[in-house]
Structure to design on (494 residues):
């Protein structure tokens, strides 16, 4: 197996391939560890066989540990033998048994989280923190995996029961008619049928559950590879293993060469101090000294003190002019240096906030319906709604078009005239990109009940004729013409 970052479902396919490769060994271990437990469950619950599938389902976290132990070793080329895995069985089942069967049993990422709980050796809050960290990358895939395998298991169980139902003897088959009539499960469903259902469930769990464990383990490996670069780390470890023997030989050889004394050192057994002294006596290391004389005037103590004061004043003038003037200014203002810095930072933040608010003022503008006057559109939904494009007596023209059988043209005149009046005279804020539904919403929000009720009825008729190609009745068209509320009986906005 090559460890590299993969897509989630590619990793799931890899996990299933790992299980298929060693399916024989995994099933053998499953039979030796899980089947005895199931036999004990059947003996203890022999009087209530209908409970057995629920108990078998609840104990799944115990079954998963042996296949995971085997796969975690086999994934890196070290397949444990049957005896080695068998010896680990008690420890694997006892470790973290209570959390797995109680507060973590209903986890939707059970197979994805199990490697972190079992293989990393963490306990308590460290396990929860580790699972949360891994779930940030692979938690969604782990949930989808659990959902998919639960459906596969359920469908396979029902399919196996239906497929083998004909093999049941007559006394083990339920009386389905009596069951649906009386709904008495205890008397109409025989014990043989319940035992057969429990056996089918155990078979399906045996076939499906190892693949669920392998897929979750592959998702876990893929998650660690993606967020921790685990493939790179393992590659460096393999390189270190290959180079360890050669590196050790090279280091030993170098140490031997360094520590081996030369023949000259062995022959010359001189004192180091004498060797240093003999080297320093060489003419190249001779120190040459040249005497010089400097005239120093005689000054009396007062003049010497004045000279010192002048030198100190000159140093202060050279090094502290700026500091001195700033210090005098701060002393005059009564503010310390830190106060000046603090207020300068505050002023800078306020200036930045003002600039930010001005540049992003569009973020704080209300997105509600604007009541400000808008530029009236001339075309809506491909229809010209200017007053000039409409006839003077719009209702009469609409009646004539209806009588001539041009139903769409008749309703188009009424609809265009209504929009023209609402946009140009009522100033309803309708834009040229609005649809019929948007226009109706704007008219309803304008608050004129008579016009809004009429426009709602007209919009329904127009949509029915224009899009559904279903004509309205003569009575409805007559009502729309009779109730025309805009500018007496005229169209437009003149």
């Amino acid at each position: 197996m090559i460890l590299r970052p993969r897509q989630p479902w590619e990793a799931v396919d890899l996990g299933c391939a790992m299980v298929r490769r060693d399916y024989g060994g995994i099933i053998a271990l499953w039979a030796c560890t899980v089947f005895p437990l199931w036999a004990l469950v059947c003996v203890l619950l022999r009087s209530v066989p209908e409970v057995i599938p629920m108990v078998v389902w609840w104990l799944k976290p115990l079954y998963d540990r042996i296949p995971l132990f085997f796969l975690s070793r086999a994934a890196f080329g070290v397949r444990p033998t049957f005896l080695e895995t068998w010896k680990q069985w008690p420890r694997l089942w006892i470790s973290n048994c209570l959390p797995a069967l109680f507060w973590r049993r209903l986890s939707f990422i059970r197979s994805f989280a199990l490697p972190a709980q079992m293989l990393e050796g963490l306990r308590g809050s460290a396990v929860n923190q580790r699972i949360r960290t891994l779930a940030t990358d692979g938690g969604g895939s782990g949930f989808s995996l659990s959902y998919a395998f639960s459906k596969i298991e359920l469908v396979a169980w029902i399919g196996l029961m239906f497929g083998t139902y004909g093999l049941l003897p007559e006394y083990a088959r339920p009386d389905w008619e009596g069951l649906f009539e009386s709904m008495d499960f205890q008397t109409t469903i025989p014990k043989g049928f319940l035992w057969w259902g429990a056996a089918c469930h155990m078979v399906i769990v045996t076939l499906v559950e190892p693949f669920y464990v392998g897929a979750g383990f592959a998702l876990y490996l893929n998650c660690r590879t993606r967020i921790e670069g685990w493939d790179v780390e393992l590659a460096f470890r393999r390189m270190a293993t290959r180079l360890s023997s050669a590196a050790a030989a090279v280091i030993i050889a170098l140490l031997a060469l360094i520590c081996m004394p030369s023949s000259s050192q062995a022959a010359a057994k001189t004192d180091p101090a004498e060797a240093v002294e003999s080297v320093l006596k060489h003419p190249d290391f001779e120190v040459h000294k040249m005497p010089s004389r400097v005239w120093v005037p005689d000054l009396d103590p007062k003049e010497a003190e004045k000279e010192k004061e002048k030198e100190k004043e000159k140093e202060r003038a050279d090094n502290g002019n700026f500091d001195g003037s700033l210090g005098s200014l701060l002393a005059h203002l009564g503010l310390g240096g830190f106060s000046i810095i603090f207020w300068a930072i505050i002023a800078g933040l306020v200036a930045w906030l003002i600039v930010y608010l001005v540049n992003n003022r569009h973020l704080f503008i209300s997105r509600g319906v604007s009541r400000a006057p808008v530029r009236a559109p001339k075309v809506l939904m491909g229809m010209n709604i200017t007053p000039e494009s409409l006839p003077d007596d719009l209702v009469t023209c609409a009646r004539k078009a209806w009588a001539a059988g041009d139903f769409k043209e008749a309703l188009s005149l009424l609809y265009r005239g209504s929009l023209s009046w609402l946009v140009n005279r009522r100033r309803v804020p309708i834009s040229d990109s609005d649809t019929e539904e948007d226009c109706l919403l704007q008219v309803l929000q304008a608050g004129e009940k008579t016009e809004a009720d009429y426009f709602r009825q007209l919009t329904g008729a127009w949509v029915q004729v224009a899009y559904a190609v279903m004509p309205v009745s003569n009575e409805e068209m007559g009502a729309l013409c009779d109730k025309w509320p805009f500018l007496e009986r005229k169209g437009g906005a003149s």
Notes: The two ends are 82 Å apart (CA to CA).
